[in-house]
Amino acid sequence: MKIVGLGPGNEVLITPEASSVLAEATDVVGYVPYVERVAPRPGLTRHGSDNREEIRRAEQALEMAADGRRVAVVSSGDPGVFAMGAAVFEALEAGQPAWRALDIQVLPGVSAMLAASARLGAPLGHDFCCINLSDNLKPWALIEKRLRLAAEADFAMAFYNPRSRSRPEGFARALAVLREACGLDRPIMFARAVSTPEERLRVTTLGEATPEMADMRTLVMVGSSLTRRIPVDSGVAGEWVYTPRSVV
Amino acid sequence: MKIVGLGPGNEVLITPEASSVLAEATDVVGYVPYVERVAPRPGLTRHGSDNREEIRRAEQALEMAADGRRVAVVSSGDPGVFAMGAAVFEALEAGQPAWRALDIQVLPGVSAMLAASARLGAPLGHDFCCINLSDNLKPWALIEKRLRLAAEADFAMAFYNPRSRSRPEGFARALAVLREACGLDRPIMFARAVSTPEERLRVTTLGEATPEMADMRTLVMVGSSLTRRIPVDSGVAGEWVYTPRSVV
């Protein structure tokens, strides 16, 4: 079984390794919009399922692999970053002992975080952290604690799943914590659907940011205290943002 | 000018976007071993330079781009993670005003961190941080502070540049801080030269880890308090390591 990262959206960011695995697969398993990124062809069955169905989906994939199918479990971006990698190993650990003999391989991909960072310059160019802002699977208090400690460590920060219809208030609370911990002038970046036709980029400050600037398809980044903005005549956002390599 | 990520080493992990830019470039600029990953061909000049020459190298690349050359600045992995991205923007900000009109694009790549994580399972499957352990450009006290705060936040951690001949003692100090903050049983992973013929993977605990397990080509990862090891009959390290998505 292969656990495959499809990259952030554009075909030119899918690794040749992933493409060749997808060309050989008999079954592709994943969240509906990701499964639909794999073109239909004879001999391929696409198994799309809903969000929040990750463990059931992982079990289904392991069952099919144990039956001898060539299964590709697909995620957007990289499978190891808030994606199907952890779900498959969770299902494997709790599941049938025979699954532990399966030949499994994880194929890395260009994560949304790296693609968003590249579009804007190099905002994660020095020490950084990456936090899932969804409180579906962890208490809000832990998210807030991590935000405060990340600010104290002066990490640049990347946030996945900042906001959804079922959790409209979480991101406003995160912004409030960040304003208090990092100040109003700190750069914040919103990178929506990077590398797709729906891409939208915005650079502003914590003081100017509003919760509506993010949705579920937005990768949010906050600079460290050293992060710099360079106004330019080029660049997709009219400026470049980078975090210097040096703190001396 | 393009700032290009070559991925961790294997050609099957270079994005088609990066490959097509390299095929069109007149000049490739970078650290010698990375420049050598681009095959020579008529019409291409390869400009290899030493480690720690990043700013001079970035200036040279910007100068050539301003002269109308099709320049590709190459980094291993992703250019935005402890690589040439930040160096180029630093040189751009401090350099000639005309450089701000240059058409620059950053092409993301599969970082060593994501490739190493994939080989071992999904150790960065939940909130994590990424720290450069080199104290060339920042004081050791800041590294130690970040390690302690990252442990308090219970992040999984990825470390670049753990050890070099010029800084043999730093990684031993990092291990001591981590043992104190995370305990002796916490999983630690050493992933050297991932995806190349020199790849070497090892999973152990902080209690058993020694500084010699890392060198400059090693990506080191430490689990969070929830990270799990699954013994299996397959997998490149005889076990899978993953950090669950849920903390409840």
At a glance:
2 copies of one chain form a homodimer. With 248 residues, chain A is an alpha/beta fold.
Low-confidence stretches of chain A: none
Helix content of chain A: 25-40%
- Main sheet makeup of chain A: 5 strands, parallel
Number of beta strands of chain A: 13
Indicate the mean pLDDT of chain A.
96
Number of domains of chain A: 2
Write out the CATH superfamily name of the largest domain in chain A. Tetrapyrrole methylase, C-terminal domain
Biggest interface reads: A-B, 81 and 81 residues
Order of helices and strands of chain A: EHEHEHEHEHEEHEHEEEEE
Portion of residues in beta strands of chain A equals 15-25%
Classify the fold: give the CATH topology of the largest domain in chain A.
Answer: Methyltransferase, Cobalt-precorrin-4 Transmethylase, Domain 2
Distance between the termini of chain A: 47 Å
**Shape label of chain A:** globular
Structural class of chain A: alpha/beta
Quaternary arrangement of the chains shown? homodimer
Question: What's the number of helices of chain A?
Answer: 7
Q: Largest sheet of chain A, order of strands side by side?
A: 3-2-4-1-5
Q: Rounded to an integer, what's the Rg of chain A over CA atoms?
A: 19 Å
At the first level of CATH, the class of the largest domain in chain A is: Alpha Beta
CATH architecture of the largest domain in chain A: 2-Layer Sandwich
Protein name (chains A, B): Precorrin-3B C17-methyltransferase
Pfam families (chains A, B): TP_methylase
Keywords (chains A, B): Cobalamin biosynthesis, Methyltransferase, S-adenosyl-L-methionine, Transferase
EC number (chains A, B): 2.1.1.131
